[in-house]
Amino acid sequence: QVQLVESGGGLVQPGGSLRLSCATSGRTVRTSNMGWFRQAPGKEREFVASRRSNGATYYSDSVKGRFTVSRDDGKNTLYLQMNSLEPEDTAIYYCALASGNPISMYLKIASTYDYWGQGTQVTVSS
Q1: Which residue, 93, 7, 91, is CA-closest to 42?
Q2: In terms of CB atoms within 10 Å, which of 8, 18, 40, 54 comes out highest?
Q3: Nearest residue to 121 via CA among 60, 40, 63
Q4: Are 59 and 67 in contact (CB under 8 A)?
């Protein structure tokens, strides 16, 4: 059984940083294609970042240069380091895992992913 558990969310001031974690069980992050999505109130879930099993990473234009996705194979955990946070980054953040090996452009689509975590709230406010 695959389980994804996010943590690390919270309240941070604009310009601050947070690191989200996605502890994974039932699959190995090293050989999995995984992603981060977010959903703000009243908005659709949107792509944030992804990391292929081969290490390639992809980011949405809105977070490129500020967010970094990484993994710790020993802890079987995916991370999202978020710097220079803005109020527009406020949302529930979800990690996700795709069972297959989709082409890169599909990693930006939520329906590509088979497993999801419960989400962690990130609020950026002064």
Answers
A1: 91
A2: 18
A3: 40
A4: yes
